[in-house]
């Protein structure tokens, strides 16, 4: 009897497979194959290298798993969606009712609509496949047409079976000043999860991005690697479960802890996009796919634009801004060749509160006339006179309980009305409640007022220095308190969309005590991010390496700061500091007057060199070679122009001990058939030319054999330009 039942089930699956309508969602090198049959759940079959024929995947043996498993009627442990209908029923039974494909720019969007067989709940499972990079975005629109509200208890973005094998995962964690620490480890039995509820900064302790190495420990430039990036700035979780012998299950989305979401009749919740990348060129291939997508397809605001070299006032003067001090810094900046001057925190005040310490006046965004008697327009004009663009710091989602804003609107902050606010930075900082439309209007007005007073403002540094300590909203009704973390971010995005509609060209930096908000949920509205408050070049090697795994170089703000470094106390040579900052958007964060004449000369030349290399560094492809995480004390990488005519190679040494192995330095990403001439840049005065200086080599030799580099001391570094003949 049992045998008969099993055979019948197997036969049903085979018959189903025979009549199945398979839909291939393909990018240039990958395919995600689905089976879309009316009256049945949408079924996931395969995600891997691009299929010439769907039959290849099906005949070789493919998955037969729900593409978006709903809880309670067949799916229990695997559920991506858990609902509670108005009658209390927690089981959902989704079946396909329609599917369509539409072109959207350089992509095709596939929408598969499922409906609960008994309730008016509709779920569109969407996939967006790009024509020119191996990224597939997936998300759902959950729509409720019932007469009474229903509840979403879990509403993940995606659920993806992955063939079990020698699978490894890369995930990122860290702290203030040590963001994007990267761990690569085997996926063993049990549930692996990266989860962050450190709202509204979701990229300090954990990051919403992982990679999966499918052929053992992932390598830089070979092997099959899948990337998964959740485009969301709020609480999230990404889970890799191993429920059986053949399968891992990758799921990702908004973390449902304390975030039950009500859908009113007629309401829709669109879940954040999960951007999947697929590469057979290792982790490097996955990184390059994300970089290309970010730059070319709107995942990063104005992503194809190159960014200016700036001087930021923070580590130079901290809160002690003054007209004279700013002008002196601008003079220094002009001398070394910078392009944009940014006045950081400390410039604002109100009648009652000033910003001499970091414990007051956030929210009171009027100029402190005691510090800047001629106002901000005079400073903007002073920058202009020196040929510099102008930028300014704000932290618009925050306030201090010591501010006129808070005194006027104590109900605008994140905190339940019954509770006393728990305060952050300075013992007074609290978060404005972005779920409240009046707060959204206020935050919009902070930018709008700046742009009205100083219309030539080119750049805004948008900071966010608090974590949520109280849970609750004065604005949200009792039954919607659990919407807070989701509605905050939807409110923030709505506000950013308003800002972008009015100020599309304004360059906006995403900063959150450093890299606390480095995520693709916000980057469609931001041009770059502050990688870390830690500007120590040695630690930056690790922070930038980790960050660059998912984010492109033109978005990464990397500043040369003073020595000894203000965060770690470490003294590092200026050349090393420049060479480390060179791989992203170069800037400086110190008083130029603290540079010696020789150092100023070096800075001037380095800045001129950077300007020449900027297209390759900011828009080229990143090829990593030696990882700082390999514990060898070296690290190297290249930026390569897409036509492979030009590349910049970077090598750093950051450990020193007797009998230390010196590696041979191999290049990557070049055209093996091209010949490249090498030239060392950022050379210390009087340095002797190396044997390879000015000589030509085949791309193949440089990649297979590499060159010898002399890096005798700790914190020695090299920047080498490779130009094809
Ligand atoms: C945060 C930022 C810093 C600086 C200060 C100003 O810590 O990360 O770069 O802007 O705020 O208060």
What key attributes describe this structure?
eight-stranded parallel beta barrel, alpha+beta, globular, binds alpha-D-galactopyranose, 13 helices, ten-stranded antiparallel beta sheet, disordered N terminus
Give a written overview of the molecule:
Helix 8 runs parallel beside helix 9. Helices cover 22% and strands 30% of the residues. The chain binds alpha-D-galactopyranose. The site of alpha-D-galactopyranose (GLA) has 12 residues, from loops.
Summarize the topology.
Blueprint: H1 2-19, E1 22-26, E2 30-35, E3 43-49, H2 54-60, E4 65-66, E5 81-84, E6 94-104, E7 107-116, E8 121-130, E9 135-144, E10 150-155, E11 158-163, E12 168-175, E13 178-186, E14 192-196, E15 209-213, E16 225-230, E17 236-241, E18 247-254, E19 261-263, E20 268-270, E21 274-279, H3 282-296, E22 310-312, H4 314-317, H5 323-336, E23 340-343, E24 348-349, E25 366-367, H6 375-385, E26 389-394, E27 398-400, H7 404-408, E28 429-431, H8 437-453, E29 457-462, H9 484-502, E30 507-510, E31 528-530, H10 537-548, E32 556-561, H11 574-581, E33 585-589, H12 597-619, E34 621-624, E35 634-640, E36 646-653, E37 675-681, E38 696-698, H13 699-704, E39 717-724
Parallel strand pairs: 22-23, 22-33, 23-26, 26-29, 29-30, 30-31, 31-32, 32-33
Antiparallel strand pairs: 1-2, 2-3, 3-4, 5-10, 6-7, 7-8, 8-9, 9-20, 9-21, 10-19, 11-18, 12-13, 12-15, 14-17, 15-16, 16-21, 17-18, 24-25, 27-28, 34-35, 35-36, 36-39, 37-38, 37-39
Bound molecules: alpha-D-galactopyranose.
């Amino acid at each position: 009897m049992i045998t008969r039942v099993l055979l019948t089930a197997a036969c049903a699956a085979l018959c189903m497979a025979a009549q199945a309508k398979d839909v291939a969602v393909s990018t240039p090198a990958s395919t995600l194959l689905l089976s879309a049959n009316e009256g049945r759940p949408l079924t996931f079959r395969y995600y891997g290298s691009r299929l010439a024929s769907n039959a290849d995947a099906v005949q070789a043996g493919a998955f037969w798993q729900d593409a978006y498993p709903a809880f309670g009627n067949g799916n229990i442990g695997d559920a991506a969606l858990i609902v509670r209908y108005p009658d209390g029923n927690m089981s959902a039974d989704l079946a396909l009712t329609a599917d369509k494909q539409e072109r959207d720019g350089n992509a095709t969007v596939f929408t598969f609509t499922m409906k609960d067989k008994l309730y008016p709940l509709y779920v569109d499972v969407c996939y967006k496949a790009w024509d020119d990079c191996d990224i597939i975005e997936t998300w759902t629109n959950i729509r409720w047409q019932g007469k009474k509200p229903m509840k979403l208890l879990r509403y993940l973005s995606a659920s993806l079976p992955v063939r079990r094998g020698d699978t490894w995962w890369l995930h990122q964690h860290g702290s203030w000043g040590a963001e994007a620490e990267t761990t690569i480890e085997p996926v063993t039995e049990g549930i692996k999860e990266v989860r962050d509820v450190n709202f509204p900064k979701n990229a300090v302790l954990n990051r919403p991005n992982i990679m999966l190495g499918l052929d053992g420990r992932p390598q830089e430039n070979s092997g099959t690697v899948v990337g998964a990036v959740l485009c969301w700035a709020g609480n999230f979780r990404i889970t890799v479960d191993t429920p059986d012998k053949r399968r891992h299950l990758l799921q990702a989305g908004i973390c449902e802890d304390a975030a039950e979401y009500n859908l009113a009749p007629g309401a829709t919740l669109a879940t954040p996009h999960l951007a999947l990348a697929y590469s057979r060129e290792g982790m490097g291939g996955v990184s390059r796919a994300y970089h290309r997508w970010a730059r070319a397809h709107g995942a990063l605001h104005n992503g194809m634009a190159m960014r200016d070299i700036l001087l930021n006032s923070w580590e130079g003067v901290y809160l002690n801004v003054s007209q004279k001090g700013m002008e002196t810094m601008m003079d220094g900046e002009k001398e070394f060749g910078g392009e944009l001057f940014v006045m950081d925190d400390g410039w604002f005040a109100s009648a009652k509160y000033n910003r001499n310490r970091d414990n007051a006046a956030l929210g009171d965004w009027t100029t402190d006339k005691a510090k800047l008697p001629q106002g901000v327009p005079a400073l903007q004009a002073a920058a202009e006179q020196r040929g510099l663009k102008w930028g300014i710091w704000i932290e618009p989602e925050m306030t201090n309980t010591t501010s006129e804003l808070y005194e006027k609107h104590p109900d605008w902050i994140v905190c339940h009305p019954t509770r006393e606010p728990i305060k952050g930075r300075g013992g007074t900082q609290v978060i404005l409640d972005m779920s409240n439309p009046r707060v959204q209007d206020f935050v919009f007005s902070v930018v709008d007022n700046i742009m009205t007073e100083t219309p030539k403002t080119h750049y805004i540094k948008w900071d966010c220095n608090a974590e949520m300590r109280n849970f609750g909203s004065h604005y949200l009704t009792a039954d919607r308190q659990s919407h807070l973390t989701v509605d905050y971010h939807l409110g923030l995005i709505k506000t950013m969309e308003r800002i972008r509609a009015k100020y599309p060209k304004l360059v906006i930096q995403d900063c959150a005590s450093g890299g606390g908000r480095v995520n693709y949920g916000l980057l469609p509205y931001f041009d770059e991010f502050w990688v870390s408050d830690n500007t120590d070049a040695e630690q930056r090697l690790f922070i930038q390496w980790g960050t660059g795994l998912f984010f492109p170089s033109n978005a990464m703000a990397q500043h040369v700061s003073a020595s000894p470094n203000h965060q770690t106390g470490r003294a590092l040579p200026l050349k090393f500091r420049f060479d480390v900052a060179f791989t992203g958007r170069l800037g400086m964060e110190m008083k130029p007057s603290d540079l010696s004449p020789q150092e100023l000369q070096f800075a001037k030349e380095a800045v001129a060199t950077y300007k020449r290399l900027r297209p390759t560094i900011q828009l080229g492809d990143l090829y990593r070679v030696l990882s700082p995480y390999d514990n060898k004390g070296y690290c190297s990488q290249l930026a390569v122009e897409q036509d492979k005519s030009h590349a910049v190679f970077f090598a750093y040494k950051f450990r020193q001990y007797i009998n230390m192995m010196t590696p041979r330095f191999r290049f990557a990403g070049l055209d093996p058939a091209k010949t490249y001439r090498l030239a060392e840049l950022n050379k210390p005065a009087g340095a002797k030319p190396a044997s390879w200086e000015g000589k030509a080599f085949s791309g193949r030799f440089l990649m297979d054999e590499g060159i010898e580099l002399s890096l005798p001391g700790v914190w020695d570094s090299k920047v080498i330009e490779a130009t094809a003949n």
